[in-house]
Amino acid sequence: MHKDRAASNVDESRQVDYIKDEVATRLVDRLLDIKRKFGTIVEVGAGCGHIAKSIDSDIADTLIMCENSGKFSVKIKFSFNFWNIDKMFNPTSKFIENSLNRDSNVKYDVKVERRKMDEEIPDFEENSCEAIVSNLSLHWVNDLVGSLIKIRSALIPDGVFLASLFGGDTLFELRTSLQLAEQERLGGISPHISPMVDPSDMGGLLTRAGLSIPTVDVDKIIVNYPSMFHLMADLNAMGEGNAIMKRPRTIRRSTLYAAASIYKELYGNEDGSIQATFEIVYIIGWKPDPSQPKPLKRGSAEVSMKSVLE
């Protein structure tokens, strides 16, 4: 629902594509390191087609974009709230176009197919996919290991899975500022940002899912915003709002203003803007195959590292 709601305002949605577009470009760069051309690449959690913008015919012939969001009718009204930036959603009928079809008229360098599919329960035939990718989508999944197991099952032997996820340090500035403000004003804290993955856990998760040769690397993207409220408005437009079910539904104005002041004091720039960190975790795993390189048995080395280093 977050994604569909964000995609309902097409112009605004496109203006906040910058994070997912940038990460998609970096993800495709990692695909280029794999020295093979794929007939078909399947994308899980495709959103509005961020990977489709970056991928070209040298990498694959076809990209199958799978996304869970669908069209639905919802009562919605776009109005400015008290800080005149963030869009609030209140009752007024509006039909929402899903994120998967937001840019359906755009021409890409590869053939694109669109399918509705839940990334929580990927519905693929076993041994049917050469490569599966996912760009900043799997942090919405409740059972990440379960989804990875289904993805591994869908891959052909020696097929590759490559994904990007938001890491635990994402938006730590916003999280800290809200917590300090709530602690000061209310004497306690509430979760206002959805949990993200710990990069140190990802190698183990890939192994638990049965994927071999796991590779994990971390990158950080720092974006400057005029204020905390501009950041929150962009997050809302991206469809990356808080998805915790038991979260508080409202935040007091005084708490928000206090958080904005704390944010600017702790993480402000000289020009008056504030910075926000997006930690990106990139993971690669392969479906096991006898042709893949394997570590030698302990004690089988014929050359001592000590002699090499001396």
TrEMBL record:
<dbReference type="GO" id="GO:0005739">
    <property type="term" value="C:mitochondrion"/>
</dbReference>
<dbReference type="GO" id="GO:0008168">
    <property type="term" value="F:methyltransferase activity"/>
</dbReference>
<protein>
    <submittedName>
        <fullName>NADH dehydrogenase [ubiquinone] 1 alpha subcomplex assembly factor 5</fullName>
    </submittedName>
</protein>
<dbReference type="InterPro" id="IPR029063">
    <property type="entry name" value="SAM-dependent_MTases_sf"/>
</dbReference>
<keyword id="KW-0808">Transferase</keyword>
<feature type="region of interest" description="Disordered">
    <location>
        <begin position="291"/>
        <end position="310"/>
    </location>
</feature>
<keyword id="KW-0489">Methyltransferase</keyword>
<keyword id="KW-0830">Ubiquinone</keyword>
<dbReference type="GO" id="GO:0032981">
    <property type="term" value="P:mitochondrial respiratory chain complex I assembly"/>
</dbReference>
<dbReference type="GO" id="GO:0032259">
    <property type="term" value="P:methylation"/>
</dbReference>
<dbReference type="InterPro" id="IPR050602">
    <property type="entry name" value="Malonyl-ACP_OMT"/>
</dbReference>
<dbReference type="Pfam" id="PF13489">
    <property type="entry name" value="Methyltransf_23"/>
</dbReference>
